[in-house]
Specification:
InterPro entries: NCS1, Pur-cyt_permease, Uracil/uridine/allantoin_perm. It is a multi-pass membrane protein. Keywords: Membrane, Transmembrane, Transmembrane helix. The protein has about 500 residues and is mostly helical. The protein has one domain: Hydantoin permease, CATH 1.10.4160. The chain is about 70% helix and about 0% strand. It is built from 21 helices and two strands. The chain has a two-stranded antiparallel ribbon with strand order 1-2. Helix 2 packs across helix 15 and helix 7 runs antiparallel to helix 17. The relative contact order is 0.18.
Length: about 500
């Protein structure tokens, strides 16, 4: 949209309760993200500790290195499709995820997918903040051994006082960095991306040397040596791989709205997501397989593995790498989206920065250390359950934008209380019904044992059910569109 028209649009809707500067369409001057910026974004987000734990967790669950790499690669190729589809309107119209959701769910109903997405992001923010805080805690212990006993037997919600202090401290560090704005995030990701890869490569060289080469590592056969044993682990694990990035497949417009064009964001994401995720996961798989050879068991938590270093300086340097890796993914993937989502609830009262603070508080209350208690909890429960919510949301948004609207949106009406997207009191009932159908189909297997196979395919089942039901409902019983009343002079 031309700058003049965009200024006119902002003037026309600036009084609306659905508008604030953080949710407004980006200007041409703000669209400065190139192919490299998008690739660097994904390299930084993929090269993170949860990715490592995802791949190493598959080894801990019994897969061999080939089975784990196949599962991870296939999952990321699949999730790239909805990622690119939802990215398109962000670049075309310069709007963030919660504003885009207004087209399908309604100007008020958009808060439903926004809050669901924000809740997941709060969990992820807490997980990464805890991982980063643990690295900081061990970093302090390596430099100042007395730090480990600081506070004595004081225990807060299952964490020692030093662990809680470093967790909160790292969380605050994330918030302060995001407060500097999106451009600071772009700059941080640009240099953090290669550093994280280098640090992981150093860890890989060290553990392979400890295992006396690749031969003993690749000789490990895993426990899932038959199809009957492999399939029950593979299916929910594949769903978990997709669920891992199902969050970003929704709110990717929060980033692509800053793209110079469709070519830049599509090419950057295609280069940045599947290849780097696979490469980094291979490193995690090899490292975890090597720990079986070296230590007799799979160590799936990289912080636990790094504690095997006896040299304090080497340990401190390695933990610094984890701190950078965790910061790079957390600020991009887990703070930008929920901040926009919470702002969408009441744009005139909740700014982007206020949304960031709300995310931080929720991340503490979730107590993420409990989600990381074991790999089955992390992969089969956390990832699969929320994929059953996010798959249906992605399906509805994609069906609405590409199938029903043919990529054409009324940008101005996305910010109006009364307009094309206000439906029934701001809610598209058909979208809500389609969401319930998808979530119900995806998660019913969690409570009905005979239908457990549906839960194993939670993202796929939810996506398919909501995609079809939304199109059918909108064709058969379309929601009424409220049109702004015009007053004519007599």
């Amino acid at each position: 949209m031309a700058t003049e028209k965009l200024i006119e649009l902002k003037t026309d809707v600036s009084h609306s309760s659905l508008y604030n500067a953080d949710l407004a369409p980006t200007t041409l001057e703000e669209r400065n993200w190139s192919t490299y910026n998008f690739a660097a974004l994904w390299v930084s987000m993929a090269h993170c500790i949860p990715t490592y734990m995802l791949s190493s967790g598959l080894i801990a669950l019994g897969m061999d290195w080939k089975q784990a790499i196949l599962t991870i690669t296939l999952g990321n190729l699949i999730v790239l499709v909805p990622m690119l589809l939802n990215a398109h309107p962000g670049t075309k119209y310069g709007i963030p995820f919660p504003v885009l959701a207004r087209a399908s769910f309604g100007t008020f109903g958009a808060n439903i997918p926004a809050i669901l997405r924000a809740g997941v992001a709060c969990g992820w923010f807490g997980i990464n903040a805890f991982i980063g805080g643990t690295a900081v805690n061990n970093f302090f212990i390596a430099l100042f051994p007395a730090w480990k006993t600081f506070g004595g037997d004081i225990n807060i919600a299952g964490l020692s006082l030093p662990a809680m202090i470093t967790f909160i401290g790292f969380l605050v560090m994330n918030i302060l960095l995001v407060y500097k704005g999106m451009n600071s995030i772009r700059k941080f990701e640009n240099w953090a991306a290669p550093l994280v890869l280098i640090m992981t490569f150093i860890l890989l060289v060290w553990i392979v040397n400890e295992a006396h080469g690749f031969g003993p590592i690749f000789a490990e056969t895993g426990k899932l040596d038959t199809w009957d044993k492999f399939l029950p682990v593979f299916v929910p694990s594949l769903t978990g791989m997709i669920g891992f990035w199902a969050t970003l497949s929704l709110n990717i417009p929060d980033f692509t709205r800053f793209g110079k064009g469709q070519k830049e964001q599509m090419l950057g994401q295609a280069i940045g997501l599947p290849p780097t995720m696979t490469i980094f996961s291979i490193m995690g798989v090899v490292i975890s397989s090597a720990t079986i050879v070296v230590y007799g068991k799979a160590i799936w938590d990289p912080v636990d593995l790094l504690l095997q270093f006896s040299n304090p300086l080497v340990l401190a340097f390695s933990l610094f790498g984890i701190i950078v890796a965790t910061l790079s993914v957390n600020i991009a993937a887990n703070l930008v989206s929920p901040a926009n989502d919470f702002s969408n609830i009441a744009p005139k009262h909740i700014s982007f920065k206020t949304g960031v603070l709300i995310t931080g508080v929720c991340a503490v209350l979730i107590m993420p250390w409990k989600l990381l208690s074991d790999p089955s909890m992390y992969i089969f429960n956390w990832l699969n359950v929320y994929s059953g919510f996010l798959g249906p949301i992605a399906a509805i948004m994609i069906a609405d934008y590409f199938i029903l609207r043919k990529t054409e949106l009324n940008l101005e009406d996305l910010y109006k209380e009364q307009g094309e997207y206000s439906y029934t009191k701001g809610v598209n009932i058909m979208a809500v019904l389609a969401l319930l159908v998808g979530v119900g189909a995806a998660l019913i297997g969690k409570v009905v044992p005979s239908l457990s196979w549906l839960f194993d395919y939670a993202w796929f089942v939810g996506f398919g059910a909501s995609f079809v039901s939304y199109i059918v409902l909108m064709k058969v019983m379309p929601e009424p569109v409220a049109v702004e009343e015009t007053v004519t002079e007599k």
